[in-house]
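Hi all, long-time lurker, first post. I run a small reading group and we've been trying to get comfortable going from sequence to structure in the token notation. Rather than ask abstract questions, I figured I'd post a concrete chain and ask someone more experienced to write out its structure so we can walk through it together at our next meeting. Sequence below, copied exactly:
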Amino acid sequence: MEKPRLSFWQIWNMSFGFFGIQFGWALQLANVSRIFQTLGAEIGDIAILWIAAPVTGLLVQPIIGHMSDHTWNRLGRRRPYFLTGAILASVGLIIMPNSPALWMAAGMLWILDASINISMEPFRAFVGDMLPGDQRTSGFAMQSFFIGTGSVIASLLPFILSSWFGIENTAAAGEISLSLKISFISGGIVFFVAVLWTVIKTKEYSPEEMDAFIEAENKNKPQDEGNQYDETPLSHSVFFKNGPIWIIAGAILTFVIAKYVHHEEPLVLSIGMMVFGLIQVLTGLLTKQGKTSSGLVEVLNDMFKMPKTMKQLALVQFFTWFGLFSMFLYMTPAVTSHVYGTSDTTSKLYNTGADWVGILFGTYNGVAALIAFALAPLAAKIGRKSVHAGALILGGLGLISIYFISDPNLLLVSMIGVGIAWASILSIPYAILTGSLPSKKFGIYMGIFNFFIVLPEITASSIYGSLVESVFDNQSIYVLITGGASLILAALLMKFVDDKDEQTAG
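-- Answer (accepted) --
Happy to help. Here is the structure in token form:
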């Protein structure tokens, strides 16, 4: 019994929720640094203010993935998480721009990012659940289309409200403009309605149907030793051996940072290493006691048993998203200072530049939406690895080119390269990954794969504040150059990825 091929409109309906998810996420990415600066954050503080969100995501994603793999109720397997995340994120979007103080805005980012992840990660697994292998590239491409269109509208919304409808985009010092408040409230509504559409319009397969599909898929799947999943739990000695190494290494790094580094942000990484070591020791204790069915033990076992292709893609993802987060964190201060020549958040010129960043974000997302459906046929002709590597190089060159531009209009050209990369980033790695995963583990492995989005965000948030102040002389444009170089490095690493399930249709 093989999974039926779905029609264009069925794939449309099952992916439409991503329009709302990305609408909310795009508002966050394009405007939260602006909100932080408006509420009094210094340029060197922006990165660390973002840190709570990815740390929370690091915990939430594997938990939600594990839970969704084991959930079957009246709503289905993944849909309960879509809906719960949408409700929480919508409330967060409404509260965020109404935060009266910087600390509250930082806290709301933490809650908002966690809520978005509750919806987003099961959506990735949803494609693997619902589509046969030869349609998954198209499924992820459809998600890319909705991510692009949702981001375009969300990114342009503050500019549209101020330029077309005359809604004020400036406010007194320490206050958020009315145009930004209306944008976020609109985002909350769109997020909920779009996800609700997918929940209502898409019916998930029953557990019995899924078991039959998995059995048929495993019979037809090429055998690859590096990507075979062994369900035997790891020995407790593995965790007892690795855990102390992480604890000791983290303690040494913490000492070095505390003694020789004048910024506290990198301590997040070193302390995180110690916590990871402690989690491994705890997992070892549970394993030794025979409690191998506990969620923590299962998640750690799955992480240590990542398929070979997933490990290879993980390194690509790390440098890809390190490059992207350089843009997400510092695009607004980089453009307003380097191109517009101002860092005064109360000035008309700064807010004009910040609105233009929304246009730039809308542009690269618009490009991504336009080319999303070209990825599958292009990948069928030249291979998914080649498509993704080429797209990442174009994205890296796009970011680097911003340094050489003084005319804001020319920045639109830079965003074309970023948009091509963005379309590929949102689809090709997931299409390659899904073919290497055990079908019963889509949820947990999508959550673990997202570590390699969250970890570069944590790394960027931990080190960029220190780099900007100590190395880059408070010139955030150099962060974008670093990000561009990171994307190009990710492209080179694609050479070492094994794509055993190369799509020839889809």
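A couple of things your group might point at:
The chain has two domains: 8-225+305-496, 230-301.
The mean pLDDT is 83.
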